[in-house]
Amino acid sequence: MPIILSHVSYVYEPGTAMEAPGITDVSLTVREGEMLAIIGHTGSGKSTLIQHLNGLLLPTEGKVFWNGRDITEKGFDRRAFRGRVGLVFQYPEYQLFETDVLTDVCFGPKNQGLSKEECTERAREAMRSVGLSEAYEKRSPFELSGGEKRRAAIAGVLAMQPDIMILDEPTAGLDPGGREEIMARLCALRDGGMGIVIVSHNMDDVGRYADRAAVMEHGKLVLEGTPREVFRCEELLRGAGLEVPELTRLMRKLSAGGLPVDTDAVRPEEAAASILHCF
């Protein structure tokens, strides 16, 4: 079931001296079974946008549809909607608050009205899916490393069995190994049919993992397409405070030097195959 934003605008503190636009006239569709990357410079409207995707914020203008229904219409169950569209914030410690990891991961299913046994079963399955073994169950979430906290926060959302998961900077602050592990697990969820939305400043991750990218600038959606299509618009990206991935820059330098490589390659395996083909 896709989430459809139709001409959505949001204004903070309307009618006051603090009034400020958050996003303006954004139309975007989020689908299951794909990874959508939302990219843009700090202050471009990314966080405001993703909070509309699960109803934490409601549009000042425009509509958000889920399963064909306007989420602001009378009788729409927004609490149930948030159970189907999970949000993992950039700083996982803001989502971890229970005495131990298992209890924390059980929190979402418990709020869905499931029995204690069902909550525990779901929590353990979610923890396994993100690489947290039984040894973590009784550990305090506040004693975990940054990467472990990120995985625990993701498990807490996964335990609710959402159709779509939204993650704000899922690899921020992680070392290369931790970043690789988190993205591999998100790709596995995507390949299993879940919709994944990531907010990211890491253009290499966007090129390597995303199926589609949406570029935000000054609260507006200025570009949308596959990573190949988006990274062709280098001048537009630079104007939005973004750069193409290092891999893309390398391939374009090789091409400028006379090597007939694929300058649109965004994944390492694509680039390697293109370079080898030249020889």
Could you explain the architecture of this structure?
This protein is an alpha/beta fold. The chain folds into two domains: 3-244, Rossmann fold (3-Layer(aba) Sandwich), CATH 3.40.50; 245-279, no CATH class. It has helices at residues 46-52, 78-84, 101-111, 116-129, 146-158, 176-191, 203-209, 227-231, 234-239, 246-256, 268-278, and strands at 3-12, 20-30, 35-39, 61-66, 69-70, 85-88, 164-168, 195-199, 212-217, 220-225. The strands form two sheets. It has a six-stranded mixed β-sheet with strand order 6-7-8-3-9-10, sandwiched between helices. A hairpin with a 2-residue loop joins β9 and β10 (220-225). The radius of gyration is 20 Å and the shape is globular. The model has no long low-confidence stretch (mean pLDDT 90).
Name the features:
Rossmann fold, 39% helix, globular, six-stranded mixed β-sheet, 11 helices, alpha/beta, 279 residues, four-stranded antiparallel β-sheet, single chain, 10 strands
The ordered string of helix (H) and strand (E) elements is EEEHEEHEHHHEHEHEEHHHH
Report helical residue fraction.
25-40%
Estimate the global geometry from the Cα principal axes: globular
Largest sheet, order of strands side by side? Answer: 6-7-8-3-9-10
Mean pLDDT: 90
**CATH top level label of the largest domain:** Alpha Beta
* Tally of individual helices: 11
Structural class: alpha/beta
- Give the N-terminus to C-terminus distance in angstroms: 46 Å
Oligomer: single chain
User: How many structurally independent domains?
Assistant: 2
Would you tell me which CATH topology of the largest domain applies? Answer: Rossmann fold
Please summarize the sheet with the most strands: 6 strands, mixed
The CATH superfamily of the largest domain bears the name P-loop containing nucleotide triphosphate hydrolases
Any idea what the radius of gyration is?
A: 20 Å
Known CATH architecture of the largest domain: 3-Layer(aba) Sandwich
Low-confidence stretches: none
Strand portion = 15-25%
Q: How many extended strands? A: 10
